[in-house]
Design brief:
By secondary structure, the chain is an alpha/beta fold. It has a single domain (37-352), classed as Rossmann fold (3-Layer(aba) Sandwich), CATH 3.40.50. Helix content is 45%, strand content 10%. The protein is built from 14 helices and seven strands. A five-stranded parallel beta sheet has the order 2-1-3-6-7, sandwiched between helices. Strands 4-5 form a two-stranded antiparallel sheet. The protein is globular and about 75 Å long. Residues 57-68 have low confidence and may be disordered.
């Protein structure tokens, strides 16, 4: 019998102390929100929600990693888009597509993938058509005007089930063992609030100047106006070009859906700054300028002129914000649970409207 040598006592003690310290800090962080107020309370509560942004279902179409499967059943409503559709930092049952499904009693297929843009949305529309939806909702967010814009890729006439060369960021047929291990490690580490704080505040790439703001008892952190300007300001040439590319791509998706006799709606989701900044004439100009929202207005106007149905959620969300409702996370730019609930309500009304 071979005896495995035991590690020296000093090593065992050091490992035990590190483990106990790590556990103690984790417990303290989880207790703090019940004892303190904002901003620390919001920061900790939102750090706890990060694993929801990485959820995935291998045998279905919702999550950051998908299998390109043949359709198993028909759906009523197809929703495509980026992380706003995917529902970052919110549980599956609380995202607006799940609420829409329960509220309308209709099957909703969510193909949202974080970090994608109009090129991928068009591919999502093509793939989703295999599920024979009656309505297509094409979600657009502000950074789509400058990210992943490429006018040459448009929906094909039919979905054959074959993977396309530009599908790599959208679909994964299977995960190799090392990829599975990486996803498992990411999920496990995301459960730690300490790790989440490190990722959010300690990494140099995550640092940008922010402005704290309270609105009717709610705490928010906003990046400065200069952060968003390069991405969404209509005053920038690349954004103006992106608006035109969006018009072309969204128009192609609408034609593809309408040609199959489906209702098509392009839905504009505003940034947190677009919703809250106009409510405060003193703080607002530091985090937002109307030239950013002009990108939405121009795209909506041009698409409507092309015969595409557009629904901009911004005016309704501004009205709700003015009533004192907190629709976005404090330290992140995505919808919180109430934001998803209000978007679901707005879209349900849109879908119920006869002839819309």
């Amino acid at each position: 019998m071979i005896r495995v040598p035991r590690p020296p006592a000093i090593v065992r003690d050091a490992v035990l102390v590190i483990a106990l310290t790590f556990t103690l800090v984790e417990l303290v962080l989880r207790l703090v929100p019940t004892l303190v107020g904002d901003p620390l309370k919001s920061m900790i509560e939102e750090a706890e929600k990060v694993p929801y942004s990485n959820r995935r279902i291998f045998n279905g179409f919702h999550g950051g990693v998908r299998r390109l499967l043949p359709p198993l059943m028909k759906t009523d409503i197809l929703v495509v888009g980026d992380s706003f559709v995917f529902g970052s930092y919110v549980k599956e049952e609380d995202i607006f597509t799940s609420l829409l499904e329960r509220g309308l009693g209709k099957r909703v297929l969510n193909l949202g993938v974080g970090g994608t843009g109009p090129v991928q949305y068009n591919r999502m529309v093509e793939v989703g058509m295999a599920y024979e939806p009656s309505t297509v909702i094409y979600g657009v967010f502000a950074n789509d005007f400058s990210y992943d814009a490429h006018p040459k890729i448009q929906p094909l006439k039919t979905y054959t089930g074959r993977k396309q060369e530009y599908d790599d960021d959208l679909f994964t047929a299977s995960l190799r063992p090392n990829e599975r291990a990486a996803h498992l490690l990411k999920w496990v580490t995301n459960l730690s609030l300490q790790y989440q704080f490190y990722k959010t505040f300690a990494q140099p790439s995550a640092r940008f100047h922010t402005i704290p703001w309270r609105w009717k008892g709610h705490f928010f952190m906003f990046p400065t106006k200069e952060y968003w300007d390069p991405y969404i300001s209509y005053g920038n040439r690349n954004v103006r070009e992106g608006v035109e590319i969006n018009r072309e791509l969204a128009g192609a998706a609408a034609s593809f859906a309408q040609g199959a006799k489906k209702r098509f709606w392009l839905v504009l989701f505003p940034s947190k700054e677009m919703v809250y900044a106009p409510l405060d004439p003193l703080m607002g100009p530091k985090i937002f300028s109307e030239v950013q929202y002009q990108s939405y207005e121009v795209l909506a106007r041009e698409l409507k002129a092309d015969g595409v149905s557009v629904f901009d959620t911004t005016p309704d969300l501004r009205r709700l914000a003015a009533e004192g409702k907190k629709l976005y996370h404090s330290i992140d730019g995505h919808f919180n649970e109430l934001g998803h609930a209000e978007v679901a309500r707005l879209l349900a009304g849109l879908i119920r409207t006869p002839g819309s």
